[in-house]
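As described in the Methods, two query proteins were run sequentially through the folding procedure within a single session, without resetting any intermediate state between them. The first query and its resulting structure tokens are shown here.
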Amino acid sequence: MTAIIEMEGITGAEQFLRQVVLPCRPAVLRGLVKHWPAVRASASDFRAYVGRFDAGREMEAFFGAPQIAGKYYYTDGLDGFNFERRQMRLSAALDLMVSAIGQAGAPSLYAGSLPVQDYLPGFAAENPMPLLPPSVGPRIWLGHASNVSAHYDTVDNLACVVAGRRRFTLYAPELIESLYVGPIDNTMAGQPVSLAASSPDDAKYPRFAEIRRHAMVAELNAGDALYLPKLWWHQVEALSPFNGLVNYWWDAFSTGPDAPYTSMLLAMIAISERPLPERRAWKACFRPPSRPWIYRLHDDTTRSPISRMICRSIWSCPTCRRATRLCSTPS
């Protein structure tokens, strides 16, 4: 396994974009949020702090039996899950988390992806993130020790540990064919997961055994952060009896109203039901070197003639003119 690059001294949005985000590689930012009031030494201190902001709203919590040891996952047939979902208030979930610490035989509890503005109004103002635009709102993830299966996000992610410790195991997007992706229509929390990365049986997933050594690993303490580019697969292990994380999802390179992932899915849907010979023809268009307008390596001042032609033809449509920054490079 390979360690993830570590960086310190990132203080401004411009520096963050240029040195961390633009290379599109994961990076650990040690001590990025260690000054936040939310970074607390104990679970009870954290509970008391966030309780000041509690809006009293209900959310969905995962409850896991002791025998799953915090590994929220599928049942054997991949048609069900090994945990229970319950609706409850965030304050009640936090009370259960704190009271169960150290209790033998207690179930594990996990609550994730809660928009801070909705559940903890005022929290973001006391724990600001100056590296990102004000429009990018944080989410909070809380729970006991757990293991979240390797999955990807379709947007950029800045994950900040505020309580406990976390281990991230990453796989590059180009390794997807060896990760054995699970069901896309029956997921735990929206995104499909890697079945191979969650299995101790390499014989069952032989291609994964060949790429396991390419995994990148980082352990984060409270106050540390990790930048994750789009489409990087990440397994997340919460290692302490109580753990908290605040993250930010945003598209660092947005050029208009259309997200790349959504556009890709629409293209797949549009082609999927066509006759096999036609699908083969389209497949050729998406295979290098037939797609230089996508993979052509250029800097910020040059763009291929094909790229400029496509931009002009598509974005001449009045509906799409909001995305003209894509064609901002002079001919």
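Immediately afterward, the second query was submitted; its sequence and tokens are:
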Amino acid sequence: MFAPWCSEIRRSESAVGSIGSDTLCLNSVEFGAAAGPDLLTGWGAQVSFDRDRGLEHLGAYLETGSGMRFRPGTGERSRTGDRRVLTWLAREVLDSSHPRSLESAGSDLPVSSSEMQIHGEKVGVRRVVPETLNEISDVSPETMIVMRRYTIQGDWDEFLSLWREVAELREEHGFHVLFAVGDRDLRRFTWAFTTRETDFQEFLSQGQRQYYDDPRRIELETINAYLQEITLTPSRLLLVH
């Protein structure tokens, strides 16, 4: 079932507090398409780096191929290209087992490890407000995940109201929503869901047909007025060891 943020995120029992408990860190690193081995090396170092700073990982998603970019207002469509993005969510936890986290209270956002910065490009981290964060423990690394990124125009709250209906309907049609977060300052909204398809082109051409033909979804086409740009890319869950 689609569920709001507050019912799905739970603090660890050892937590004694947190920095910005109503926000998460949305991290992203862009790589070249051929950066496979270096990426895995950098990711392992990043996991250790984050844990050392008292960050709890809540899901990491690696793009596996070129996606699509849409501009609803103009009808423009294009491929996203050969670049790949690794996206992961983390929560800052003040925990006695992570002494550095106590020292970093009130500091700037955490940064990426030096290894990740060497192997990746366009390293970024933003503080975001979670709209949804659901359980991922039963998601297989082989499951295709669709990452959707929006650039929002117009009233943010009106967009969110429509998006919640969209997310509910996605769930009814078998797409399990994993997370959704918003960055109001940059007017960006990022979310991801699973799909039964294993081929991205099949997903685009056939996998959403019943969903988009649903009369309730047709009524929700008004959400496009709030979407300046949409990108969607095939991704998979990257395990945290």
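The beta strands are 24-31, 55-63, 68-71, 76-79, 84-92, 121-133, 145-152, 177-183, 188-194, 227-237. We note this only descriptively and draw no conclusion about the first query from it.
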